[in-house]
Amino acid sequence: MENGDPNRLWQDSVHALGERSNYKRIWNDQAAHPEVAKLAVAGYREEAGFEATAADTIATLRATTGISPYDIALEIGCGVGRVGKHLATQCYHWIGTDISGEMLRHASQRLQGLSNVTLLELHTVGLSEIYSGTMDLVYCTIVFMHLFEWDRYRYVQEMARVLRPGGRCYFDNIPLDSAHGWQVFSEGAAYPIHRRPAHMSMSSSREEFRSYLTHAGFEDIRIHDLPSGLIAGTGRKPY
Ligand SMILES: C[S@@+](CC[C@H](N)C(=O)[O-])C[C@H]1O[C@@H](n2cnc3c(N)ncnc32)[C@H](O)[C@@H]1O
Question: Over the stretch 175-193, which tens digit does the pLDDT of each residue have?
Answer without folding.
Answer: 999 999 999 999 999 988 8
